[in-house]
Amino acid sequence: MAEKQTVTFIITRQDSPESAPYEETFHVPYRKNMNVISGLMEIRKNPVNANGEKTTPVQWDMNCLEEVCGACSMVINGTARQSCAALVDELEQPIRLEPMSTFPVVRDLIIDRERMFDALKQVKAWIPIDGTHDLGPGPRMPEKKRQWAYELSKCMTCGVCLEACPNVNDKSDFIGPAAISQARLFNSHPTGEMNKSERLEGLMEDGGIEGCGNAQNCVQVCPKGIPLTTSIAAMNRATSIQSFKNFFGSDNAH
């Protein structure tokens, strides 16, 4: 197509965490079915901007290239999403690329997602199995429960839900919807349920579930369609019950 001989990218760049952001425009050769990462790879091969000036290659993060790892999240034409799944043919030009604003910028489009991983630590989003290798198979999960638990397990800590959430910002320590949903996932597991109260305590700490303002942006933007608001509602109920147990001194009651 003659009108698509080149693709124009306007990229928000930042040389270091402390330096000021600036925009740089690039023209890259058009290819059918190319995604945003294909365009970034072209720029890396030939880092010359639209003014014909040699510049530094644009830095971005990626890993799986099939919308599983969550590493390549960025803001594309104003919407946070995965750049591996963003097809150029479906995007309005010029294509604007920016780093997600909820997280600290490392360089260019690379952001530091440590906030998300700290949130997972807060809610103990894992199942302790040390020392259990010789106990034989664990309990089976009923099929109906397994089906909705599998939907929660699709979370790839991409950070898009945190970017969309108005309650997650540099003035708030709210852990965000992803960690809340993961607490629900691990509490639903027959073995993980043994540490259920610890995860609920994590959700009841500062920055926990009370930070949710019920904006419901998260469930609209999640690339995996995870029922985040359903998880938040379920964990709201669970933490309320846990607080009653704590109040009446029956932490181990079931």
TrEMBL record:
InterPro entries associated with the record: 2Fe-2S_ferredoxin-like_sf, 4Fe4S_Fe-S-bd, 4Fe4S_Fe_S_CS, Beta-grasp_dom_sf, Helical_ferredxn, SDH/FRD_Iron-Sulfur, Succ_DH/fum_Rdtase_Fe-S, Succ_DH/fum_Rdtase_N
Coiled-coil stretches: none
Pfam families according to UniProt: Fer2_3, Fer4_8
UniProt keyword terms in alphabetical order: 2Fe-2S, 3Fe-4S, 4Fe-4S, Iron, Iron-sulfur, Metal-binding, Oxidoreductase, Tricarboxylic acid cycle
GO molecular function: 2 iron, 2 sulfur cluster binding; 3 iron, 4 sulfur cluster binding; 4 iron, 4 sulfur cluster binding; electron transfer activity; metal ion binding; succinate dehydrogenase (quinone) activity
PROSITE patterns tied to this protein: 4FE4S_FER_1, 4FE4S_FER_2
Domain 4Fe-4S ferredoxin-type, chain residue ranges per copy: 146-174
Metal-binding in keyword set: yes
Cofactor: [4Fe-4S] cluster; [2Fe-2S] cluster; [3Fe-4S] cluster
One of the protein's GO biological processes: tricarboxylic acid cycle
Enzyme Commission designation: 1.3.5.1
SUPFAM superfamilies: 2Fe-2S ferredoxin-like (SSF54292), alpha-helical ferredoxin (SSF46548)
Family stated for the protein in its record: Belongs to the succinate dehydrogenase/fumarate reductase iron-sulfur protein family.
UniProt xrefs under NCBIfam families: dhsB (TIGR00384), PRK08640.1 (NF006391)
Classification via PANTHER family: SUCCINATE DEHYDROGENASE [UBIQUINONE] IRON-SULFUR SUBUNIT, MITOCHONDRIAL (PTHR11921:SF29), SUCCINATE DEHYDROGENASE IRON-SULFUR PROTEIN (PTHR11921)
Protein name, as recorded: succinate dehydrogenase
Organism: Oceanobacillus limi
Organism phylogeny: Bacteria, Bacillati, Bacillota, Bacilli, Bacillales
